[in-house]
Amino acid sequence: MLAGVGLFLLVMALFVLRQNLLVVLGVVTAYAYLVFGDGVLTSIVLDAWDALNKEILLSIPLYILAGNIMSRGVMAQRLMRMMRAISAPIPAGLAITTVLSCALFAAVSGSGTVTLLAIGPVMYPALVEAGYPKSFAIGALCAAGTLGIIVPPSIPLILYGVMTQTSIADLFIAGIGPALLLTALMSVYAILRNRNFRDGRWSFRELIDSVRHGLWALMMPVLILGGIYSGYFTATESAAVAVVYAILVEVFVYSEMGFRELYDVIGQTTKLLGSLFPVLMMALSLNIFLAYQQVPEMLISSVSSQIDSPIGFMAGINLFLLAIGCVMDIGSAILILAPMLQPLAEAQGIDAVHFGIITVVNLEIGYLTPPLGLNLIVAMTAFREDFWTICRAVLPFMGVMLIGLVIVSFWPNLSLFLIR
Q1: Residue 230 to residues 95, 169, 220, 419, Cα–Cα distance (Å)
Q2: Which class for 204: exposed (0-12), middle (13-18), buried (19 or more C-beta within 10 A)?
Q3: b/e per residue, 284-317, with b = 16+ CB within 10 A?
Q4: Dist. CA 261–CA 263, nearest whole Å
Q5: What is the pLDDT of residue 9?
């Protein structure tokens, strides 16, 4: 009992001192091994090495690199032109273009932040110039930018698969249905709110020309998902294919990125990974310790005695994850909570892959919630607006996403129909 109280006070002190996640996880892991374990700190290194010695972890830096290459190149602009040609005759066509461009580029980059930074600086001034309210433009870009979290290939889905031993290929495929649903809901809201806007006329020539110029970019998600779904290559191999394909298209086909710029992108990605992998190492080591101490089994026993209804469990876990998304970034939440929550869900008869999608959609909404919503912080720089203006702008879209969350949570086949 005293040891548990000591751990709680130690964690609170670290948060008050605003220590980063690596320090918090490192201290918690060391405390757990010393007080609750065998007292041998070298076990942390051995467990971390065993956890990191997995081929699937190579997919994380490779997908991040591929996304960074494409966001610095011209793929985003060519995809936006294609979506604009398709949606031109629809009421609020430019708003639809914004949502569809974010969804499509998310399927290329696998990152919500990269999607916002790639699409936002182009579409925001275009929306404002066309007469759309600034609040709508900001909200649409912030919300649609989060689609990169659920659209495969998704870095959070990879992290979830690594931490819970869930098939990453199945998670990728299961993310397609919810991603299409959220895209459709945002598009419908955009039309209803801006139905009086007419932004263009149908042009078959422009459509053909935009498809011709954007075909190489459009083939990226087809190549990745087609290869995984057909079994031709694994999730890790698809990440390597994505990097090679991005380099070939941006450097040699479109010829818009030089080798010097490519070198800079690789350097920036390496720095990012230098901060990510130590955190992942600590989280995996702590996960192994918790499993050895049978903590998940104890949680299952405790929760099962209190909640005997899958519906009640689902409602409670959604509220919990939404609250977590307000104060913790998605990567940290997955690293810390996913290994403990998934056994609870499986004990309630919830499919592991379906629960993974529910978790990521919940935390996706966290990208839009203050005080730590990452897309809110990025949008401050991208759109040069104050924090609370951006928070107010995203509120209607959060409502739309909450509707999508309820549908995803209580309609398992939306996620699972492609893998059954």
Answers
A1: 34, 11, 15, 12
A2: exposed
A3: bbbbbbbeeeebbeebbeebeeebeeeeebbeeb
A4: 5
A5: 75
- Asked if residue 334 has pLDDT above 80, the reply is yes
Q: Residue 275: how many CA atoms within 13 Å on its side-chain side?
A: 8
Task: Tell the residue number behind the tokens 């294609």, with chain if given.
Answer: 82
58: DSSP letter: G
Q: Which residues are within 8 A (CB) of 288 and not within 5 positions of it... i.e. 6 or more apart?
A: 47, 50, 51
Measured CA to CA, the distance from residue 136 to residue 10 in angstroms comes to: 43
Instruction: Calculate the alpha carbon distances from 314 to 111, 229, 326, 412 in Å.
Output: 26, 29, 19, 12
Banded pLDDT at 406 (limits 50, 70, 90)? very high
Residue 161 Cα distances to 96, 97, 154, 278, 313, angstroms: 32, 32, 11, 18, 22
At 354, list the tokens: 């379906």
Query: pTM (2 decimals)?
Result: 0.79
> Cβ atoms within 10 A of the Cβ of 218, count?
17
pLDDT for 128 beyond 80: yes
The whole-angstrom separation of Cα 73 and Cα 77 is 9
* Spatial separation of the C-alpha atoms in residues 394 and 391, rounded to whole Å: 6
Distance CA 277, CA 264 (A): 20
